[in-house]
Amino acid sequence: MRFHLAGDKIAKVCNTLIKYVAYAVIVYFVTRSVDVVARAWAGKTTLANVNVNVTGSVNASTAVGKEPGSGQGDPLVPFLPCLPDLWIAAGAIVLAAGTISYGKRQARLRKDTVEEMHKYQLEYERSLDPNRTSSNLTKRGDTRPGDE
Predict the structure, then answer these.
(1) Residue 144 binned pLDDT confidence (cut-offs 50, 70, 90)
(2) Which of 24, 16, 20, 73 is CA-nearest to residue 44?
(3) Which has more confidence, 70 or 116?
């Protein structure tokens, strides 16, 4: 029994550690990406036009010059130093998508288990107290539709 409690404590510490390390890694990569873009655009003239229509469509356009007042420049030049960071951003997006899908799968599995155990829970509660009233949660443990 003591080993089980120690294992639970270690698991809780590891889960907390993983969560906060993930937050730190996300903050690091976001700040690094912003820094690279800021350095690439430093000293350059940047114009951004963002139009939002009533229908909800968004149009954005940018123009980047080589130096302030120098006229036209190659719009791809400021982005060349940050191309390696595109792989980092792509990796972060893949990691985020993976964690979201993992979380959704775990929530679905938990609801499946709740649904499977629902009839046993009802029998157990009735055996303890036959006058017990129900909270009217759904079989999957969700709030009843009228209470949302």
Answers:
(1) confident
(2) 73
(3) 116
Q: How confident is the model at residue 136 (pLDDT cuts 50, 70, 90)?
A: confident
Overall pTM surpassing 0.70 (yes/no): no
What is the torsion angle, in degrees rounded to the nearest 10, for the CA atoms of residue 74, residue 90, residue 31 and residue 66?
0
DSSP 72-114: ---TTGGGGGGHHHHHHHHHHHHHHHHHHHHHHHHHHHHHHHH
Structure tokens at 137: 């949660």
Residue type, 11: A
* Contact call for residues 66 and 77 (beta carbons, < 8 A): yes
Which of 81, 74, 75 shows the shortest CA–CA distance to 61? 75
Angle formed at CA 112 by CA 111 and CA 118, multiple of 5 degrees: 85
